[in-house]
Amino acid sequence: MNKTIYILSSFFAGLLITDPLFAQQSDAPSSLQDSINLVDLNPSSISVTGKLYALPKVSVMESGNVGASSVLMLRGVNSINLSTSPLVYVDGIPLRYTASRPTFLSTYEPDRLGFLNPYDVTDISVNASGLLIPKVGGRGANGVLDIKTERGEFGGTKVDFSANYGLNNVDYNVPRFDAQSMKSYLWARFSEEGMPAQQLDQHPIFSATDPVYNNNTDWLDLIRQRGVFQDYHLKLKGGDGDANYMFAVGYTNKDGTVKNTDFERIGIRFNLDYNLSPSIKIFNNLSYTNTSGHYKDFGSDYAVHPLYVASAKSPFMATHFINPNGEQSRIMAGVDTLGFSNPLALVNNLENKNQFNRIDGVMGVNWALAESWSLSSDLSVSYFNLSEKQYRPALGIVNDLYRIRQNSQRSSSEFYLNWNGRLAKSGKISESTNYEGALQASVETYEEKAIYGRKINAGTDDFETLEQGIVDSASNTEFRSNLMTLMAQGAITWNDRVDIDGFINVQGSSNFGSNARWNLYPGARATVYVWGEKPQNILNLLLGYDRTGNHEVRGFYHYNQYYPVNYFGFGAVYLGNVANPDLRPEITDTYEIKATARPFGNRLQFNLGYYYKRTHDLITHKAVVKELGIDGLFENAGTVENKGLELGLSAQLISSKDFNWNMSASVSTLKNKVLSLPNGDVEQSIGMQTGIAKEGYALGSFYGYKVLGVFQSEADVNLNKSDGTPYRAGDYQIEDLNGDGRISTLDRQVLGAPLPEFFGHVSTNFSYKKWGLIALINFSQGADIYNSFKQQMHLMRDYANQDPAVLTRWASESEPGSGLSRAATNDPSGNGVASSLWVEDGSYVKLKNLTLHYEITSGKSQHFFKRIRIYFSADNLFTWTNYTGFDPEVNSLNSPMLRNIDFGAPPLGKTYKLGFRASF
After folding, report:
1. What is the mean pLDDT of each run of 10 residues along the chain (920 residues)?
2. pLDDT score for 844
3. Residue 654 bridge partners (DSSP)
């Protein structure tokens, strides 16, 4: 190809991968990277988020629900209706971490970074504000993760191959009755509800000879499995004086610890850097990834929650039909007489399949012009398609309202195209003063589409397609947005003692009406080298301010919106939103101060910083009269703040020929509070749990009733239910906040906050000759967890297997129990509502990763390989916590209002992995 054509096509096509003006600035200091090398840290996580545990400022909550998205947080949460997850850049391509639409499952969110193989990642920068990546502008309010993949290097072709095999074990030891204890419990339940003794004696459940009800089935053991992890990765890289290249191909497979849950990934990546001349450099990135998986619903829909149903189903039931002769058939047993599904049907027959294809491409040029001028430009393209399928048979699964069986399918896609050009100049104002300046412009277009269909009640369970059944629902949605960014940057360095830099970002988004489309996002900071000149300074002080925004709305809230509805079997629409042409992005102002000390050079670094984030113009609903029949007018009304300290320490304790010892630690504190909500409190619910935004409290606090005890006798009952009828002895006594003698929604209160007071990590890296040891500890303090799974195991509203603690329930005035309410079918007194009983302290300290490795290097006579590293790694070895659930690392939703609700998803478990990496 003609060089001139190639240069011009790259220039007029591109997006800038790195900002040269601030390329030296990173929130992950080199000393930290040296302490625990992210390339060497290889947790069993299939996602690159597994590496984030070793970085400061970012809070990570991962679960054993294979393929599920981790919950990420940088400096708190600051929105009610928009995403609060950080924006992610992968080699300069922006990625929305939170999906725009829910999946078929109640809480499952697929990992948006699952396409990226951790072995391709060479660097992750945690940018908690817009100072380090000013181009984010109106989408940087939640911080940015800047991920770089490996590139080629000068020298002959080098081949790296890695192979890993691991096993994951989880102890699903849910406290529950065995077969005989379950019968005793049901006998007592039926007796308490008034069933005569003669009828109890004749009930088939209590028969000593009926083969249907005399089994000893461990349902949890039948649905669990040992999770297997395997990963193979081949990388070729090299280069000469003009071109450096990196080619990688990888395969990953991970089985969950519940049967028929898995994740599989196949990926290819090619990066090329080419020097056309000493002043012109071209770069290209191209990658393709296919991921697929099978998932189960471990969320709020307990009717099809495999772990809950396996815990709640009576162990005296059989897995398959039993004929009158007591012989077990090959036909799986259906829904039992107590109304519970067959857990084997949930894991073997109910299917949830996802397949994800993603293509990313970048082409660009960096051109060093005369007299310290430089020109950069490139074009990035990203496309992915997600195919989702769900098949729900009738056999063995409780009917869902009018749906006996169903098939659902959805195909969705996202397309992203971005061009960016940058002109920069550097020079000297005087002998002691240097300057840098740049102008940058970018244009982005984004489009997402989705086609969805569902058919129900096909004639038999034999049809797993949309070809059979009754059309229940269908939709075809499309969303498109455009973004333009104009930016000016400048920096001045005086006498290697003071750095002052700033930027102005002017950004226009089509997500808003013409009255509020353009917004200004400025930022500035000053760094004073108090003791010593850079880069060997001993102490420096940084002051910074920046403004970012959150404009990731999806609903065209500045338009009138009509929503589809089923009206007595006919399709219809209704007006759901009145247009607000003045709606604008949520705005976040961040102020920070940071001191960095290096008293012994690069051997020791200590960071201490304070940040204050204030977000205003929250997008909330303005209440309207119900007669209008709409949800409310969207408008900017509300303010929330996040503030805290950030401490970091990295040290090179020992450095010698044979022995090296590095260590790092970080602690981030967080204080989140809603300052104002002119439109009143905002509530969002899932299942029986509610999160609230309320002035004076943390955003997303748990909201429900405070239980004071149990009414021991009818004489003690002094409260009425919301319908005016009195409670009964054995019901929970709820705090009557307004003192009207009646418990209603007005008596709900804040029960706890899901955000931690502080969190962080400690890591260490030893090496002695050819041996090495890496250890990583993570901790979190002060975050509350709503233990919904435990609540289900104590409800006693149906005939589910329960925690043996229910034996100490209130049974009568002479048997008052020890704190649990009476058992009552269908829970007429609402004892199972969200309450303080199930809010627990989720603080923990966890030995996240421990890796022992041994390295073999080639000798003078050995040229077949250069280096081989063999390692044994263990994840989640020990967890110190008072939390009574599976794991205090609760991963439910990325929603800011519904965090830390434990529905009983599979925990991470202990993973043991053996691997090796060879360089040739």
Report:
1. 38 34 38 51 79 92 91 94 92 87 86 91 90 89 93 88 94 94 95 90 91 94 95 93 92 96 96 92 95 94 96 96 86 94 96 95 93 92 94 93 91 94 93 92 94 92 89 87 95 91 94 89 94 81 95 72 70 75 93 92 90 96 70 86 96 91 95 95 92 96 97 95 95 96 96 96 93 95 97 96 96 92 95 96 96 85 77 94 95 87 94 92
2. 97
3. 661
Distant-in-sequence, close-in-space partners of 203: CB < 8 Å, separation ≥ 6: 190, 195
Q: Report the C-alpha gap between 730 and 548 in whole angstroms.
A: 53
The partner residues of 671 in beta bridges, in order of sequence, read: 643
SS3 367: strand
Q: What is the pLDDT of residue 632?
A: 67
638, 518, 513: which is closest to 580 by C-alpha?
A: 513
What lies within 8 Å, CB to CB, of 569 at 6+ separation is none
Q: Tell me how crowded residue 623 is: count the other CB atoms within 10 A of its CB.
A: 11
Q: Judge whether 20 and 48 are in contact, CB under 8 Å.
A: no
Helix residue ranges, H only, 30-158: 30-35
Please report the pLDDT score of residue 726 as a whole number.
Answer: 95
pLDDT at 157 (0 to 100): 87
Distance CA 112, CA 268 (A): 17
H or E, element range at 914: strand 910-919
- Hey, which bits of 110-224 come out as E strands? 121-127, 144-149, 155-169
Compute and round to an integer the Cα radius of gyration of the chain: 30
Q: State how far the Cα of 614 lies from the Cα of 604, in Å rounded to an integer.
A: 33
Token representation of residue 71? 């919950």
The secondary element (H helix, E strand) that includes residue 197 is helix 197-202
Query: Which pLDDT score, from 0 to 100, does residue 818 have?
Result: 92
Contact 105, 111 (CB under 8 A): no
Q: What per-residue confidence (pLDDT) applies to 108?
A: 87
Structure confidence at residue 11 (pLDDT): 33
In this structure, are residues 124 and 52 in contact, taking their beta carbons and an 8 Å threshold?
yes
Residue whose tokens read 């098949």: 391
HSE-CB at 636 with a 13 A cutoff on CA atoms is 18
Residue 238 bridge partners (DSSP): 245
All domains in the chain, ordered by first residue: 2-160+227-303+345-676+885-889+891-897 (2.40.170.20)
Q: What is the pLDDT of residue 495?
A: 86
> Where are any strands of DSSP class E within 533-617?
539-550, 561-567, 570-577, 586-597, 599-602, 604-616
Q: What is the DSSP string of 756-794?
A: -SEEEEEEEEEEETTEEEEEEEEEEES-EEEEHHHHHTT
Q: If DSSP codes are grouped into helix, strand and coil, which group holds residue 45?
A: coil
**3 state SS of 723:** coil
Instruction: Tell me how far CA of residue 485 lies from CA of 418, 443, 547, 917, in angstroms.
Output: 11, 7, 15, 43
The pLDDT, as a whole number, for residue 34 is 39
Residue 70 to residue 50: CA distance in whole angstroms? 9
Q: What is the DSSP letter of 8?
A: H
Residue 162, SS3 per DSSP: strand
Backbone dihedral angles phi then psi of residue 705, each to the nearest 5 degrees: -110, 145
Residue 324 makes CB contacts below 8 A (sequence gap 6+) with none
What DSSP state is assigned to residue 835? B
CB-CB neighbours of 197 under 10 Å? 10
Secondary structure (3-state) at 202: helix
Convert 363-391 into a string of H (helix), E (strand) and C (coil). Answer: EEEEEECCCCEEEEEEEEEEEEEEEEEEE
Q: Which residues pair with 672 in a beta bridge?
A: 642
User: Phi and psi (nearest 5°) for 718?
Assistant: -130, 15
CA atoms within 13 A on the CB side of 242: 2
Beta strands in 598-695 (DSSP E): 599-602, 604-616, 619-622, 633-636, 639-655, 659-669, 671-676, 682-686, 689-693
